[in-house]
Specification:
This protein is of the alpha+beta class and 474 residues long. Helix content is 24%, strand content 28%. The chain is built from 14 helices and 28 strands. An 8-stranded mixed sheet has the order 12-15-23-26-22-21-20-19. Strand 2 and strand 3 form a beta hairpin.
Length: 474
């Protein structure tokens, strides 16, 4: 125990008793403190015995054991890290107004008490949040462990070295209430102190609002094709009653296909021609599956021959979709995996898609990871169904915002600039900085021409990384 922390606690109590306008609520007896689900440092206990809460002006703080079981202490609009042996901290204030403000007010609970009742100074220091995936995949082992794998819509604030107090956190949510929301917006922001106050997680939970800034995705390993084959084969060996792999094909067979097949795809298809698991839409990776046939007009609207490779017929209620790998007809690259409605009326009236993966190997790695987790829990089929609902477009994943093509007319990005020549009324979207999964609903743009047969065709570039919806001429 630090004598400094205990001395600071005593000084804080003396200051609070004499500070004008501050009302101290009754303390908490040791018998009650002993029931709290975490060890309480001596300095904190010395305060809580005397003061169970503080009220002054419009502010009130009740010192109750809320949140202690998850490593933080909530008191009013404050979060307190509770991992320290000498004191608790830091003290992080989160004020949720139109523009959320996050301020790290003090390094410890007892030092924060010394500031109560005094005029707050404006933060001069700033600490930036970073994508949690960046932390998870970075060189700092401690921070990587705190990020726990990371998530595309979650940012992390490293609180181990705050530049000064009070300190403002530079951060903004990934969704936007501007640009006309996609639906009745009810997005939320979740925040959580982790690691005993060593880091703060900030999660964007978009609901009915478009995404508005780029996200960081997990890095796909360079050997993803080989690893996907290895992991699926291991699953099939460990769980033959749950995982069935259909045989692949020879290079000679692939050479006869109407599209070029690059080496990364050949690595997969030499070994695996299909994947079947309870609760998962059956993947048939080789040509000739009758359920992959679509109406000729739908085929044209999806891009036509040589632009996509179907892999799964997807049903969800009355909705029917076709999961497919987008192929760049100029380079032969097999790129993004997307799911499109394959009902002529649905696609024509409400053009949309769901982004499933950056590539076929990426998709198979995602499926293998989910299956491994599902196999360790009851109800394998139910878990797999829940994990892959997004195979059907517009099932509640974050919405990437489509924009009128005119917004890209002056773009310095050559891929975007190339699409700017498409007809007026075209809507475009860039999936390179979208989370996976994501929904792209062109019909949710308030400028999209509503009505039957509004879509002429979808146009994909760079193997599905950018998408354009071209409307029919009036």
């Amino acid at each position: 125990m630090s004598d400094t922390s205990l001395d600071q606690a005593r000084r804080a109590l003396d200051a609070l008793r004499t500070r004008e306008g501050v009302e101290l609520l009754d303390g908490i007896p040791d018998t009650e403190l002993d029931t709290w689900p975490i060890a309480i440092p001596a300095a904190v206990r010395a305060v809580l015995r005397e003061v169970g809460g503080i009220r002054y002006g419009r502010e009130r703080y009740d010192f109750e054991p809320r949140g202690l079981d998850v490593g933080q202490w909530g008191t009013g609009d404050l979060l307190v890290g509770v991992g320290g042996e000498d004191d608790w901290g830091p003290m992080v204030r989160v004020e949720e107004y139109d523009d959320m403000e996050i301020v790290i007010e003090a390094p410890t609970f007892t030092s924060w008490l010394l500031t109560l009742g005094a005029e707050r100074s404006a933060p001069e220091a700033t600490l930036a949040a970073i994508p949690s995936i960046e932390a998870a995949e970075g060189p700092d082992a401690e921070l990587a462990a705190l990020a726990d794998g990371g998530d595309s819509l979650t940012d992390l604030v490293d609180l181990r070295a705050v530049p000064g107090y009070p300190c403002r956190v530079a951060w903004e949510p990934y969704h936007s209430l501007e640009y006309d929301t996609a639906d009745t917006g009810s997005s939320d922001i979740e925040y959580e102190l982790i690691g005993g106050g060593r880091a703060l997680l900030l999660r964007s939970v978009p609901s009915g609002d478009f995404l508005d800034r780029p996200v960081r995705r997990h890095r796909i390993p360079a050997d993803a094709p080989r690893r996907a084959v290895t992991e699926l084969r291991a699953l099939a060996a460990d769980h033959p009653d749950l995982v069935t792999l259909e045989p692949g094909c020879t290079d000679e067979e692939m050479d006869s296909w109407p599209v070029p097949v690059p080496e990364d795809i050949r690595t997969v298809l030499r070994a695996i021609g299909g994947v079947r698991m309870p609760g998962l839409h059956t993947l048939r990776l080789l040509p000739g599956a009758p359920e992959h046939t679509v109406d000729p007009e739908v085929h044209r609207m999806m891009g036509g021959d040589g632009t996509y490779w179907p892999i799964a017929h997807v049903t969800y209620g009355s909705s029917v979709a076709l999961a497919q790998i987008r192929i760049d007809p100029d380079t032969g690259e097999w790129g993004y995996v997307v799911s499109l409605p394959c009902d002529l009326r649905d696609l024509g009236e409400e053009p949309e898609l769901s982004l499933l993966a950056e590539s076929l190997p990426h998709l198979l790695l995602t499926i293998a990871k989910a299956a491994r987790e599902a196999a360790a829990a009851p109800d394998f089929a139910g878990r797999m169904t829940s994990a892959f609902l997004y195979f059907t477009p517009n099932t509640g994943e974050p919405w990437t915002r489509p924009v009128p093509v005119e917004e890209w007319s002056d773009s310095s990005d050559p891929l975007r600039a190339a699409l700017a020549t498409l007809p007026p009324g075209t809507h475009v979207a860039d999936l390179r900085d979208s989370p996976i999964p994501t929904d792209l609903c062109f019909h949710r743009s308030y400028l999209w021409p509503y009505g039957a047969d509004s879509l002429d065709r979808l146009h994909f570039t760079a193997a599905g990384r950018l998408v354009a919806a071209i409307p029919r001429k009036p």
